[in-house]
Amino acid sequence: MTIKSALTIAGTDPSGGAGIQADLKAFQEREVYGMSVITSVVAQNTLGVQQVEHLSIPFIEQQFDAVWNDIKPDAVKTGMIATIEMMELIAGKLENTDVPYVIDPVMVAKSGHSLMEEKSREVIRNMLIPLSTVVTPNVPEAELLVGFTIKTLEDAEKAAKVIVKELGAKAAVVKGGHLEGEAKDVLYDGNDYTYLTSERFPTHHTHGTGCTFSAVITAELAKGKTIKQAVEAGKKFITDAIKYSLKLGNGNGPTNHWGHRLQGLPNQEGK
Ligand SMILES: Nc1ncnc2c1ncn2[C@@H]1O[C@H](COP(=O)(O)OP(=O)(O)O)[C@@H](O)[C@H]1O
Ligand SMILES: Cc1ncc(COP(=O)(O)O)c(N)n1
């Protein structure tokens, strides 16, 4: 069996639901060998973010080189990259590789805490997105990337197209977690739209949904799946992870990375 590997470059969540920790759990569930480069150490839990400390640029670079020069990953994702300097470093490292690259453009945590400097938005747009295979913004992130309001499915389609045609991503998925009604995401791959729809579960235990979704997409690309197959696998996985999400902690609990093994069983509300 050939082992495929994936690398996440992101911030941490010591409570295990988001960031690097969520990504590594997702890679493991998809049977891909997981590796990580930490950009910022975050004191956070299900209640919110308490404190953030950024690692130095030379130290982030050392971590990256340690992985890349030894076990070159089959796919890479970035999550929380807070500063312009971090983005420039990562862009420089990824610009001449052909490794599939997924960007989860993490800007603000669900709890409302900013995880990216505002002035970095321009840099993610100009330097990182043109290098990417798939970008996975939620609605507020997509609005900041494209500069218009997203209220309807048509707006989401338009935003996905702008991210591909104008910002230079190979594909974009605008996630519908923040819209009303069914949880409907829109993938645009430069030619076609694909809609990924699930029922909306009435739960607030959704800490780390975006991290887990993009990590599964990364794992599937590492295995050589197409963008469409990878995004469909990500949607299936996150739907079960939310359906069986965990009432852990005192705030918004984490998603359940074993959700896909629990199909047919009652969720935590007994439904
Ligand atoms: N309550 C929910 N029920 C079912 N799916 C959801 C729910 N909330 C979010 N999702 C799905 O989870 C994935 C992550 O979306 P979203 O929560 O918008 O991302 P983020 O964590 O970046 O804000 C998407 O596929 C979205 O459709
Ligand atoms: C290190 C890190 N990366 C990403 C998120 C976003 O996750 P969420 O939007 O679910 O809070 C987070 N809270 N922490």
TrEMBL record:
Pathway: Cofactor biosynthesis; thiamine diphosphate biosynthesis; 4-amino-2-methyl-5-diphosphomethylpyrimidine from 5-amino-1-(5-phospho-D-ribosyl)imidazole: step 2/3; Cofactor biosynthesis; thiamine diphosphate biosynthesis; 4-amino-2-methyl-5-diphosphomethylpyrimidine from 5-amino-1-(5-phospho-D-ribosyl)imidazole: step 3/3
One GO MF term attached to the UniProt entry: ATP binding
Domain Pyridoxamine kinase/Phosphomethylpyrimidine kinase, residue spans: 13-256
GO cellular component: cytosol
Alphabetized Pfam families for the sequence: Phos_pyr_kin
Gene3D superfamilies named in the record: 3.40.1190.20
This enzyme's EC code(s): 2.7.1.49, 2.7.4.7
Keywords recorded for this protein, A-Z: ATP-binding, Kinase, Nucleotide-binding, Thiamine biosynthesis, Transferase
Catalysed transformations (reactions): 4-amino-5-hydroxymethyl-2-methylpyrimidine + ATP = 4-amino-2-methyl-5-(phosphooxymethyl)pyrimidine + ADP + H(+); 4-amino-2-methyl-5-(phosphooxymethyl)pyrimidine + ATP = 4-amino-2-methyl-5-(diphosphooxymethyl)pyrimidine + ADP
Domain of life of the native organism: Bacteria
Record GO biological process: thiamine biosynthetic process
Similarity comment: Belongs to the ThiD family.
Record PANTHER family: HYDROXYMETHYLPYRIMIDINE_PHOSPHOMETHYLPYRIMIDINE KINASE THI20-RELATED, PHOSPHOMETHYLPYRIMIDINE KINASE
Name used for this protein in its record: Hydroxymethylpyrimidine/phosphomethylpyrimidine kinase
